[in-house]
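Hi all, long-time lurker, first post. I run a small reading group and we've been trying to get comfortable going from sequence to structure in the token notation. Rather than ask abstract questions, I figured I'd post a concrete chain and ask someone more experienced to write out its structure so we can walk through it together at our next meeting. Sequence below, copied exactly:
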Amino acid sequence: MLAAIAVRLMALGAQGPASSAADDLLDVHGAARLIGISPLTLAHKRKLPPYAEFVVPTGSRVVRFSRARIEAWKASSAGSPDAPPAGAPRERKRSSLPARSAPDWLTSRRGRGSL
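-- Answer (accepted) --
Happy to help. Here is the structure in token form:
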């Protein structure tokens, strides 16, 4: 039984601290600066893709992000036509609906009594 626990601890030790020791862990402000979004946006969307991939579990309520994962994501999405450059303003979509005019009751003079 102790041998099984020792093997399990060695396996966890090889995966956990070795991978996180070689990787810089960033707080919300550093990760947001690297991604190109505001820290508040990253804090709110940290559980959604693609930002959930960057989160490194720390065993506490403190949220840390992997610099290596963020840089790999940036390198893979750099050539993508859908990904705007970090910090670039997004282009607003124009509506395909025709422009609305004011309703008739606002523009008509009928029904108004003289004061």
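A couple of things your group might point at:
The longest strand covers residues 64-66.
The two ends are 97 Å apart (CA to CA).
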